[in-house]
Specification:
This protein has 352 residues and is of the alpha/beta class. Strands 8-7-6-5-3-4-2-1-9-10 form a ten-stranded mixed beta sheet. The N and C termini lie far apart (58 Å).
Length: 352
């Protein structure tokens, strides 16, 4: 009798557990006028809230008066290497890649693609407005995170809309805003590696010094990771604590405070992929341009279009290409099936 009960219970619970791991990834093209194309990830909790109930599981349905709260929003801004018109490049690293590799991020994620140049805060917020008009989201918990050019974009966005962004994390970037007053009005965490050759750490330090000099740093955290390179900070997108820190802030807080109980160290970079990579997440994917449902499992090797390519020129070395593409030598070797001793012939296409 007990055995039959357990089997029946598992029959009901197991599908629900599997559904909880599923989210929806949509490629949104030409959706918001005069803005960016973007990826929109919706977690399973939002799916369960907006879809018609499955009568198959009426026995375990929640009471009608209990509703799943709308999810928070994360705006992910990529770096210069992912600029262009191939939207799949945005999946190479960052929040969406972390989800595809199995990291559970319970938030709606907006990941626009910048065709080139500095990020435009208004265009980003126009996308947020569209999402708010067409999806259920918690507008008191909108967060921004980005690295390199996206680090600049994160600070520009946060400094322009501090009353709309609950917290922001800017990695190896800087700030283009002439008036940086807004950056002192929201929880902001700036992280930069001291060995960054692509975007010198001084670019972040200048922002910190500006906020300090104007006594506008009460909501500021900053870390200079000794010896960390530019690309090393991409690992922060894969850490659970990154999202825990963001989610600990809300516009509904009685006063704007910053959570100083979280730290990210060099040791954290070494273990950033712990718990992910082995079990890829199953995500329903829809490309609005191709009008088709894509494979349920995405990895960076699934689509060749997810990579950009560099053409080898005379005098190029792996080290030189690494600096030009902001991609580590190890990653270049892995993507192209070569070693550090491989002779690079002029004209060869190198994926990065």
């Amino acid at each position: 009798m007990i055995k039959k009960f357990l089997i029946a219970a598992l029959t009901l619970i197991l599908p629900l557990c599997l559904n909880a791991q599923n989210g929806k990834m949509e490629a949104m093209r030409n959706i918001v006028a005069d803005s960016y194309n973007f990826w929109l990830y919706t977690p399973s909790e939002a799916d369960m809230r907006t879809e018609e109930p499955d009568t198959k599981f009426d026995e375990v349905a929640l009471p009608e008066n209990i509703k799943t709260p709308p999810p928070p929003v994360i705006i992910f801004l990529h770096g210069a290497s992912l600029c262009g018109t191939d939207l799949y490049k945005v999946r190479r690293y960052g929040c969406l890649d972390a989800i595809s590799r199995g990291r559970n991020i319970n938030a709606v994620i907006i990941a626009p693609q910048n065709p080139g140049g500095a990020w435009n805060p208004k265009k980003i917020m126009d996308i947020v407005k569209w999402v708010n008009d067409n999806r259920e989201i918690d507008t008191t918990r909108i967060y921004a995170i980005g690295m390199s050019l996206g680090g600049y974009g994160t600070m520009d966005l946060a400094g322009t809309y501090p009353d709309k962004i609950a917290a922001a994390m800017a990695l190896c970037g800087g700030c283009y805003l002439k008036d940086q007053t807004g950056l002192g009005k929201l929880p902001l965490w700036i992280i930069h590696g001291t060995a960054d050759r692509a975007v010198p750490v001084k670019c972040s330090k200048e922002v910190v010094e500006n906020l300090k000099e104007n006594k506008n740093d009460s909501l500021l955290m900053y870390d200079w990771l000794k010896g960390a390179s530019h690309s090393a900070l991409a690992k922060i997108f894969y850490m659970e604590k990154t999202y825990d820190w963001l989610f600990s802030h809300s516009l509904e807080d009685s006063t704007r405070n910053i959570n100083r109980n979280t730290e990210i160290t060099l040791d954290d970079l070494k273990t950033a992929y712990t718990g992910i990579n082995k079990n890829l997440a199953h995500v329903s994917e829809i490309d609005t341009n191709r009008n088709a449902t894509l494979p349920s499992v995405y990895t960076t090797s699934t689509y060749s279009s997810s990579h950009a390519y560099y053409t080898v020129r005379q005098g190029d070395t792996l080290g030189a290409i690494s600096k030009k593409t902001h991609t580590s030598v190890a990653t270049l070797c892995r993507l192209n099936g070569i070693s550090t001793k491989t002779i690079l012939r002029i004209g060869r296409k190198i994926a990065y």
